[in-house]
Write a structure and sequence with these properties.
This protein is mainly beta. It is 14% helix and 64% strand.
């Protein structure tokens, strides 16, 4: 009896996924997404850049915050722009010395996604992007000159999914290298 109940449940769930009026992503869709990164790679970089004694150096971060616009050029392909920002702060306090260093990152990338699947509420996709990264490093330690790290070529690679609560509003999650984070979560809105 349990087997039939499980089989019935699976079939009902599959029917809900495939019983669609319109797929979640189609040609002509315009999406705006806002998210926050999970696992800031620049925080890891600042921690590992110097070998300070334990309990003398603390690193915190804000972001990565990302705003994305994408447009569906064809039923399976979208393109757009992603703007990101993060700030990482390292504070040293030990051996009679106190200083703070800050690394900020601003990025603007053109990106494209391939949307696979044909679901009403789910929109799985994979994609990549390329563009501009600008870093700024500041330290308030005597004898060290603050420097602007020149802008450079940046990239992203993502595997993600949008889930729509309504026909226009939803949430998204991405894994990969996205704006200095290992993944992102956030909200999305169809215009």
């Amino acid at each position: 009896m349990k087997f039939f109940l499980i089989l019935f449940s699976v079939l009902c769930f599959a029917r809900i996924l495939y019983a669609q009026k319109e797929p979640a992503f189609t040609k002509g869709n315009s999406l705006i997404s806002a998210g926050i990164g999970i696992g800031n790679i620049w925080k890891t970089f600042l921690k590992d850049a110097f070998t300070y004694p334990p309990d003398t150096y603390k690193v915190t971060s804000k972001g990565t915050f990302t705003l994305v616009y994408e447009y569906g050029f064809i039923n399976k392909l979208s393109g757009g722009i992603a703007i990101g920002y993060s700030e990482v702060v390292g504070k040293f306090n030990g051996f009679g010395e106190v200083f703070t260093e800050t690394l900020t990152n601003f990025s603007i990338l053109a990106r494209a996604n391939y949307h696979f699947g044909n679901f009403r509420r789910f929109d799985p996709y994979a994609g990549a992007g390329v563009g501009y990264y600008h870093f700024n490093y500041h330290v308030n330690k005597t004898g060290i000159v603050n420097s602007k790290v020149p802008g450079s070529l940046g990239y992203s690679a993502q595997l993600g999914i949008h889930y729509y609560f309504t026909s226009q509003m939803g949430a998204y999650a991405e894994a990969g290298y996205v704006g200095g984070s290992f993944g992102q979560i956030g909200f999305t809105y169809k215009l």
